[in-house]
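User: I'm putting together a small comparison set for a docking exercise, and I want a reference complex before I start. The sequence is below, and the ligand is zinc ion. Could you produce the 3D structure with the ligand included, as structure tokens?
Assistant: Of course. I'll restate your input first, then give the structure tokens for the complex.
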Amino acid sequence: MRRNQTRSKTSFAPLILVVATSIAIVILMGMGSPSTIPGSALAPAVVEASRTEDVLESIVRPARTQPHETSTSSLDLNQAFLWEVLQAHPKKEVYDVLWPRIASGDISIKWIYGTHADGHFRPAPVEDADGHMVNLMGSISIPLDLVDRARRGDSVRIAYLHIVLLHEAVHYEQIASGRFSPDVILKEAATPEECVAGWQLEREAYERECRFAMSVGQDWILRSYCTTLEPEAFDRNLFEVLQPRRTDNCPTFWMAELRK
Ligand SMILES: [Zn+2]
């Protein structure tokens, strides 16, 4: 069931950026080691390049490393590695729900170039004549640098890639199930109700990735917000993560709600 998207007139200012849905940047250590996981011939290529600036939610920090080689062979190796990671992911949401949609081509993978960027799920709902969603297609943008370093054996980045994939799989499920409208991601929030939906969408994804990270002993990677699951403290941490990414009035609304 899709949510009613009726918009009411409010005092919210015009908005220019989309909802940020990515995982927070973390500071990752280590430079990786030689590849230990060879690429293999898997599904037909559906990975396509995307320009960094196309991914509105990505946060790019100054590059600390040389640009990565992006030859066809390198992309093939990273795609094959990503396919393996998706299929071998510990969480059902990824290997059993998201991966089949990627393998079928309904969800495509786009590379994000740049050494510091986050994942992003962009839904592309297929609707019937009545506006009901009959299929959910879309794309997931993944930082090439993250996958490349994970493929070369960087254990921290392998763990972080698992976390990123779970986060985006949660977003896929949120939309595919009808619990959230695609517009929560695709359109800027213009009403308090839409700000609430944006908060709930991200809070669920962050909490589930945090619980997963804790379960595998990797929560230290998410140290900016995954320090506790106590609801009020988690909300405060999450606010600090989400607030800088928004140019709409939602942070003001969220803050008022958090203070209640
Ligand atoms: Zn998100």
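Helices lie at 72-88, 92-104, 144-151, 155-176, 183-186, 192-215, 231-242, 250-259. DSSP finds eight helices and four strands in the chain.
User: Thanks, that's exactly what I needed.
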